[in-house]
Amino acid sequence: MYERKIPPSLNCGLDLIGEVLYGKWKIRLLWFINEGNKRPSELQRKIPDASRRLLNMQLNELQEHELITKVIYPVVPPKVEYSLTEFGKSLIPVIAALGQWGDEYQERLRTVILERLEQVTGQ
Amino acid sequence: MYERKIPPSLNCGLDLIGEVLYGKWKIRLLWFINEGNKRPSELQRKIPDASRRLLNMQLNELQEHELITKVIYPVVPPKVEYSLTEFGKSLIPVIAALGQWGDEYQERLRTVILERLEQVTGQ
DNA sequence: ACAATATGGGAAAAATTTGTCCCTATGCAA
DNA sequence: TTGCATAGGGACAAATTTTTCCCATATTGT
User: Which of A68, A117, B76, B79 has the fewest Cβ atoms surrounding its Cβ within 10 A?
Assistant: First the structure.
């Protein structure tokens, strides 16, 4: 695990939520777990763009931040299930608000994002 | 400006909002601009941890994503003002929801974040 | 025997983001 | 004339995040 050289700022609510939600796939992990996709392999199938390694790392962090719990069944081949904690569930409406805004403006968003990319890339 | 080698995924609303909000200070920039802090120097004073350079870069991106507009007054010394577009204003309630959750659970958040840090750092 | 399943972590490389340093411009104040 | 305020960008360095590759476990099916 990478050890930060620069400490995070934890002043306001935005800093704090940022600290637990920042990470390429964390929001989606919470979302899919909430939808009932509990096993690591299911989550990996849901998020094929993510590397397996990173999903594991972010699941560990979510767990350390007490947003999810992990149950390991002592069977072979191994079976693992993640679930939201109550704390994690309290985040779902917030994530829903993010997704809703993104859905509502998806056309416009796609346009401005792609336009900027073209500008930077040079078409 | 850095040119991505790996294209972003723009599948769902969460991808899309992530694309425009990701960046260390973007959310705070939107927030402070909404509160009436329009000039770059004001914003820099509000966010002293951020480097001047990065604030400029992120303001540029917010502008390219049409969340803010920039007015340059042709005076000396230069004067610049940023404002939220209507599109940008529509994001404010979403950001408020994030901040609200962070405020509501700030004690618990501070605890779990610091505990994890100690674990990683080794006290 | 060998491959497939399911889960997870170490090590190092690659990608990306953020910070630092320096340079530009102009008018005003000490 | 030197220094401050205001604003912004290039070049490069440092920090951080993410990916890739490989190894390990133990059972079931071929």
Answer: B76
**Interface check A13 vs B, CB under 8 A:** yes
DSSP state of A39: S
CATH code of residue A18: 1.10.10.10
Which positions in strand D are less than 7 Å from the protein's CB atoms?
5-11, 14-21, 25-27
Nearest of A35, A92, A54, A34 to residue A44 by alpha carbon = A54
**Within B 8-47, residues with CB less than 7 Å from strand D:** 39-41
Is strand D less than 7 A from the beta carbon of A27?
no
Q: How far is the CA of A32 from the C1' of D30 (A)?
A: 35
**Are B62 and B17 in contact, with CB atoms under 8 Å apart?**
no
> B13: closest CA among A116, A94, A104?
A104
In a domain, A33, yes or no: yes
Scored b (16 or more CB within 10 A) or e, B2-21 reads eeeeeeeebeebbbbbbbbb
User: How many Å apart are A76 CA and D25 C1'?
Assistant: 9
Q: Which domain holds residue B81?
A: 13-90
pTM over 0.85: yes
